[in-house]
Amino acid sequence: MKPRICRTCRLRPFLTGRKMRYGSNAVVLTIAVVAIVLMVNSIAGRYSVKFDLTRTGFYTLSDATIEVLRGLIVLSTALLMMVFSIPVYAGLPAQPHIINNFLQCVEITKFSFRLVDSQYSTRLRTDVTLRNVGSQAIEAYRLGFIYYDYFGEETHSFGGYNLNRIKPRGLDNSSWESASGTDALTGFVWVDSLRLADGTVIKADTSEVAQIISGTIKEPISAETLGSIRDNKN
Amino acid sequence: MRKMWSVFKRELASYFISPMAYVMGAVFLLLSGYFFSIILLATHSASMQGVLGNMAVVFLFIAPVLTMRLLAEERKLGTDELIMTAPLSITSVVVGKYLAAVCTYLVYLTVTLIYPFILTRYGSPDMGPIYCGYLGMLLFGAGCLAVGLFASSLTDNQMVAGIIGFGLLLFLWILGWAGAVVTGPIGDTLANLSLLKRFDDFQKGILDLSSVLYYVSFIFVFLFFSARVIDSRRWSG
């Protein structure tokens, strides 16, 4: 008859065996090393010391960007003026009361791009203040955007959609942040559509906007391009 | 130290006796030369910023191939038993082999110094970001090689070691993306562990000592893991 071995008797050699002893030592050592390394890195991250080795200092524009910006100053001014006078109401439906209302109800009073260098900054913020000078509250409005990069090429375009209720003669301060890595320096913004308190939706004529933008930058921008921005965001 | 030197010399010689180092070097230099030319022609800017970033991506593919042989081959041929019984510490073996791989990588990196030389010859580049970028490339590459060596210690099949190494590196590379999705301290931690995020600062000319420490720790941890894996064979039988 085969002699029976109790469980404890079988477990003891396993627990006190060579493999177990070395194995547990190795596991403890590995955990300790990883924990120490993580702790040291965490402390170093909290009290990190940075040295700026660039010629111009931290987060400044690179030489190449400054050169391009110098060339863009005139263009930027023109674009900003253009935004103030943009006829967002061009091509409105023929009903006189709506046109009249629209003509008086919206005005972009502030439009600014923060100049960024994509090498150093990851987000582009666009601030817009919309002033309601009309007699009806604006339930919602949507803006169209086109951005241009250092070389004047269109790189990014999208529409913003705001659902704030703007009272007559009220202001709405909004901002949009573009995706990281956008190389935009300047661009256009126009009111794409409005929804008034009575439910009326008024849309801008993109062909009119496209014509104005093309006239300013001397390059063709099609109404389809602007339309596709609007459609994509619907 | 003398024993480590012997391992180092032997490994370095085996790199340059076989066509491996030359083929890998040719691929690395061809691609980095291509990126340098294209970026220079497109931006007309005397900067290495985009070039170094692309070189790092290329090296991500090359590092596992350079290191996959180091420990896996010893195991396959059975020469690892000789090493384990020889009067030689595991640390000497691991570090010696690792330094040989780093030395090979340094040769590649030294050849690419011709790009900044061209920039200084025909323009006036900001040298700070270039020095810093090269330091970043050195640390990044050394980190990749440590991961590759660790992958090589896990198996006796070179191809499997290469694939594991590449998978690990890719994972560590894209770890930062999770940081963009997950918010809060977990997201920050994930982003901080990413190889990519740490390398970005070097490219911009920002020398962050915590990033240097990160790469040094990274190398140390993976070399330590490799030594543990080899050591485990001694007692696991």
Give a quick set of tags describing it.
heterodimer; A: about 230 residues; alpha+beta; 8 strands; disordered C terminus; B: about 240 residues; mainly alpha; globular
The main sheet of chain A orders its strands as 5-4-7-8
**Fraction of residues in helix of chain A:** 40-55%
Calculate Rg of chain A over CA atoms: 31 Å
Alpha-carbon distance between the two ends of chain B: 28 Å
- Portion of residues in helices of chain B? over 70%
What is the H/E order of chain A?
A: HHEHHEEEEEEEHH
Helix-and-strand structural type of chain A: alpha+beta
Characterize the biggest β-sheet of chain A.
Answer: 4 strands, antiparallel
List the helices and strands and how they pair.
The complex is a heterodimer of chains A (234) and B (237).
Chain A: H1 7-16, H2 18-46, E1 50-52, H3 63-84, H4 96-105, E2 107-113, E3 125-131, E4 138-148, E5 154-162, E6 171-177, E7 186-196, E8 201-203, H5 206-217, H6 223-233
Antiparallel strand pairs in A: 2-3, 3-6, 4-5, 4-7, 7-8
Chain B: H1 2-17, H2 20-43, H3 49-67, H4 72-77, H5 79-85, H6 90-111, H7 114-122, H8 127-154, H9 158-181, H10 184-193, H11 195-204, E1 206-208, H12 209-236
Helix pairs in contact in B: 1-6, 2-3, 2-6, 3-8, 3-9, 3-11, 6-8, 6-12, 8-9, 8-11, 8-12, 9-10
